[in-house]
Specification:
Blueprint (H helix, E strand, L loop, with lengths): L11 H7 L19 H33 L1
């Protein structure tokens, strides 16, 4: 009696590519904040907002310094 086939990868690549191989979503899109401690969530929201403001301010300062150096 002949040995039975143990493994084949036939057609798997085609099947995977029919709808496209997609990148996994970043973890921050998966994490649910439901049930978390509310004061911590509110504080984190404020921190994100102020960090963004600081980043915008720093970028404006860098651009102003760069433009002053060029002129």
């Amino acid at each position: 009696m002949a040995k039975s086939k143990n493994h084949t990868n036939h057609n798997q690549s085609r099947k995977n590519h029919r709808n496209g191989i997609k990148r996994a979503l970043p973890m921050y899109l998966h994490n649910s904040k439901r049930g978390s401690w509310l004061p911590a969530l509110i504080n984190a929201r404020r921190v994100r907002k102020n960090n963004q403001k600081a980043a915008v301010k720093a970028r404006r300062e860098r651009l102003a310094a760069h433009n002053a150096k060029q002129n």
